[in-house]
Design goal:
By secondary structure, the protein is α+β, with helices and mostly antiparallel strands. The protein has four helices and two strands; from the N terminus they run H-H-E-E-H-H. A hairpin with a 2-residue loop joins strand 1 and strand 2. Helix 1 packs across helix 2 (about 15-25).
């Protein structure tokens, strides 16, 4: 993904996105690569350690959220929440693709 797209995805300027990505790159969670044909274009992607960290955090959040939802909501409420979340995701994707 280009830095321009990263900036758009997090609703910030390209300079702010670059500053946000720098510590992630320094920690080895993302890799940056400059386009040889256009030195102003920088690509960013998750490194293997970034993917592992993301999966670990995703699993931890999923387990914690699942336990809380099961303790607090009825099956009917969980179904309603799932349907509402699906709708929000679809609308968000539509907004992102329109920009």
């Amino acid at each position: 993904m280009t830095m321009k797209r990263v900036a758009r995805s997090i609703a910030s300027s390209q300079e702010q996105a670059t500053r946000a990505v720098a510590p992630l790159a320094d920690a080895g969670y993302v890799e940056r690569r400059t386009d040889p044909s256009n030195r102003t274009r920088v690509y960013v992607r998750l490194s293997e350690s970034g993917r592992q960290l993301l999966e670990e955090k995703r699993a931890m959040l999923t387990e914690g959220l699942s336990a809380r939802l099961n303790a607090a909501l009825s099956e009917e409420e969980k179904t309603a929440m799932y349907e509402a979340s699906s709708c929000i995701i679809q609308l968000t994707e539509k907004i992102v693709s329109a920009t």
